[in-house]
Every structure is written in C-alpha cells, then in structure tokens.
C-alpha cells in the first residue's frame, strides 16, 4: 500500500518548491518509502480509514520525505564518485557526498519518529519498531 500520491507530493509536500522526483518515477519511490515505514505490514486500509486528518497528513508527509531521501541517495550514488583527479600536476579533489547506508537509515528513522510519534500512529512507532 502506498501512502502518498504525486498530487500530494507536488501540492502539499513541496508547496511550490522544485520537484525532486520526476513524476513518472514517483510511484516507485513512494511505494519504496511506504514499505519502509510499514516494514511489518501492520498498516492496512482499515487502519488508514480510521486515522484522523492530521495523522494521515503526517503519514503522507513522511512518505514523501523518505521518497526524497531515497531518490537523492540514488542520484548521488549514480554520479561519478571519484574523490580526486590529477593530470600533469593539476589536481582537483571532490567532496564525498555519498552517505553510508547507516546514515540513510538514521535519517529515515528520524523522519518516521518526528512525523509520526505524536500522532495516532504513536503505538505503531513505539511498539512496532521503526
């Protein structure tokens, strides 16, 4: 189950900011982030229908924010990841912007906790594990 759609991403999450994830790729990244939020498959349609508007909005925001994290990480990893280049005495060093998988996971956990811990999904966060 995917918790956010492209319309929510562009209108509510981005709020006029430049779109990071291309429209044609959004469903993939939203599903990946939804699956990460609900690792144990405990959020079903019945639970979603019972959520108040604030909780549902925060769930969608978390989905979009995590989708952006995944997408930006994929973009960074696909770039040429050389740290330095030397050519006939000319040398250039690049800043290593690739985050470790542990850093990415820590960012994702931070998003889930900050967005969902003060909502109706509090018990899911506390007892279900992030």
Strand line-up across the major sheet:
1-2
Separate helix tally: 6
What's the rounded overall pLDDT mean?
Answer: 88
Count of distinct structural domains: 1
In helices, the fraction of residues equals 55-70%
Structure report:
Helix 1 (6-13) packs across helix 4 (53-78) and helix 4 runs antiparallel to helix 5 (101-116). The mean pLDDT is 88. The protein has one domain. Helix content is 59%, strand content 6%. The chain is mainly α.
Describe the SSE topology.
Elements: H1 6-13, H2 23-37, H3 45-49, H4 53-78, E1 84-87, E2 90-93, H5 101-116, H6 122-128
Antiparallel strand pairs: 1-2
Helix pairs in contact: 1-4, 2-4, 4-5
In short, what is this structure?
By secondary structure, this protein is mostly helical. The protein has helices at 6-13, 23-37, 45-49, 53-78, 101-116, 122-128, and strands at 84-87, 90-93.
């Amino acid at each position: 189950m995917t918790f956010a759609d492209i319309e929510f991403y562009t209108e509510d999450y981005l709020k006029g900011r430049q779109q990071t994830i291309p429209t044609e790729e959004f469903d993939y990244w939203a599903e990946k982030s939804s699956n990460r939020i609900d690792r144990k498959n405990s959020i079903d349609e019945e639970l979603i229908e019972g959520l108040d508007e604030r909780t549902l909005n925060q769930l969608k925001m978390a989905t979009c924010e995590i989708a952006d994290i995944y997408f930006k990480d994929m973009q960074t990893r696909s770039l040429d990841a050389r740290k330095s280049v030397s050519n006939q005495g000319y040398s250039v060093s690049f800043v290593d912007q690739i985050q470790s998988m542990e850093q990415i996971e820590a960012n994702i956990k931070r998003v889930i906790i900050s967005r969902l811990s003060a909502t109706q999904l509090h018990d899911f966060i506390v007892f279900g594990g992030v």
